[in-house]
Amino acid sequence: MQNSTDVRWSLVTGAALAWRCWDGEYVIHHALSNDTHRLTELAGRALLALQRTGALDLDSLARECGEACEELGETLAALAELDLIARC
Amino acid sequence: MTLGSLPAPDLVRRLATGLSLQVGPFRYLVTSRLSPVASGLAKMYADFPLDEAGGFHDYHIQVDRVAGLRRWVRPQISFWWDGHEPFKPMAADHAYALLEWGMNWCVSAQAHHYLLLHAAVLEHRGRCVILPGEPGAGKSTLTAALMLSGWRLLSDELTVIDRDDGLIQPLARPVSLKNRSIDLIRAFDPQAVFGETAHDTHKGTVSHVKPTPESVAGMTIKGQPAHIIFPRWQRDAATRLSARPKADAFMHLANHAFNYSLLGRLGFELCAALVDRCDCWDFGYSRLDEALRSFEGLVA
User: Fold this and answer.
1) CATH 1.10.357 fits domain B114-298
2) What is the pTM of this model?
3) In B, which residues are within 8 Å of A18 by CB distance?
């Protein structure tokens, strides 16, 4: 079984993000795909933390975001589905 | 000298070889031999300055009869842009409506040096309200009523955002009304000047309302965005203004823009800057008089 520190996450290569946060909701523009996403506050904070730090494991990212690992894990899976982040 | 002061035979003569029409930042060269086009332009664009500068035009357009058998059997007309026909021919009595649709198309399909949103814009006391809206939401009805109540019309269909300063470029062309909105606005303001009514178009019955002289006179003055309001007309609904989440307003504007994706990151930044500076609202209404009071309150 994988430990939460075994897997590190990072933004998909070349995914420069432009963003806004209004009233706790994020809108993100992903330069690589030219897609725009409306995201929860946690998803937005996680993305920006990865943009800031490069790559983080789940525990470190949870600390950056001030959130429990379980909830963050689901959010990261959703962001990976959108091709915004990937395991590295 | 204005287009309305041009004697009818002169207008017809100019239209046969190309009539210059300056609409906001765009110059059209309009050619037509159809009398409904000439009379429609004379009536709807009467307050526009006569453009005799010559030189460059952004759009060379033409509305005329289709050649061949169609000249005699159920005549049809078509719209040409630089010699291309972007639409299928239509019934001859839709000529003026087709000209207006074609003029919209020129900007929405090609003016990508602006961010182009599908929304009406009006201004009062130096503050613009932007009205996006699904078909049937009452956007054009509200637009016509506001304009006829003294608001400056910037556009009834296309919000043109300048990429350099985020301000709104006016395009004060006639307001297109459909179906029951036509009678509603006739009753609202019996002095309003209407063009010919086109029946059985793909949008139903269509007629245009002439822009007010104040709107035409302000055509070179860019507007300051202040509110984004999503109107929704519902029979017997109470007038209600409620805050709309900005992220939601952003996504709607982006999804209904003509060229948001095409502009890439710039489209995002322009749209986000617009939402940053505006308050965003949902607006339900059924009575125009109450709707106008609500709008007055927003820009007071």
Assistant:
1) no
2) 0.94
3) 265, 268-269, 272
